[in-house]
Amino acid sequence: MSVIGDYFIIFWGFLLIGLMAIGGFFMFRKFLKQLPKEDGKSDMDWERYYIDRTKHMWGEEEKLFLEELVSPVPELFRDVARQKIASKIGEVALQKDQEKISQETIIQGYIIATPKRDHKFLRKKLKQKEIDVTPYEPYFELSQANYAANWRENYKK
Q1: Which of 118, 105, 116, 119 lies closest to 155, judged by CA?
Q2: Same domain, 42 and 94
Q3: C-alpha distances in angstroms, 25 versus 11, 32, 78, 100, 132?
Q4: Are 87 and 13 in a shared domain?
Q5: Rounded CA separation 133/77 (Å)
Q6: CB neighbours (10 Å) of residue 27?
Q7: pLDDT in tens, 90-111
Q8: Are residues 71 and 113 in the same domain?
Q9: What is the pLDDT of residues 26-80, one digit of tens each?
Q10: CA–CA separation, 47 vs 41, rounded Å?
């Protein structure tokens, strides 16, 4: 066997191990999301709950706006991101006792559901659509790490 063949086999072995590690990481994250919390429901249970409770509140325009917002997410992860963001939007809408999902609620839910590093795209998209971000600045200032944990209390402020 040649030296090139040996290097190819070593490279292929590392590649397979790396890909399996990446896949295992994402499977483990999904497993953690399905573990029940103190209230007996998992994060995924709550996501499904809020989506089911607010499914009838979404108009066609709002769905298209949400699709625009999640468009920069890689296709492989887009469904997961859409579900997480849509559930947070639904939670905000129920908290506000809305009859219909509004553009304001979509923006607030998007900010709450996404980490701070993703807010740059949202700001750019809102600027393109000529939507003033000033009313949303308090949400942008709070990072997801300290906002998502107790967002209801922060939202009321």
Answers
A1: 105
A2: yes
A3: 21, 11, 17, 37, 39
A4: no
A5: 27
A6: 10
A7: 999 999 999 999 999 999 998 8
A8: yes
A9: 888 778 777 888 888 888 888 899 999 999 999 999 999 999 888 888 888 888 8
A10: 10
Integer Cα distance of 95 and 88 in angstroms: 10
Q: How far apart are CA 43 and CA 29, in angstroms?
A: 11
Domain range holding 68? 38-156
Q: Indicate if 17 and 52 belong to the same structural domain.
A: no
Rounded to an integer, what distance in angstroms lies between the CA atom of residue 45 and that of residue 37? 10
* Whether residue 91 is found in the same domain as residue 25: no
Q: In angstroms, rounded to a whole number, what is the distance separating the alpha carbons of residues 41 and 45?
A: 6
CB atoms within 10 A of CB 133: 15
Contact of 62 with 68, CB cutoff 8 Å = no
Stated length of the chain: 157
pTM (predicted TM-score): 0.72
**H/E element holding 97?**
none
- The reply to whether 102 and 147 lie within a common domain is yes
Distance CA 50, CA 44 (A): 10
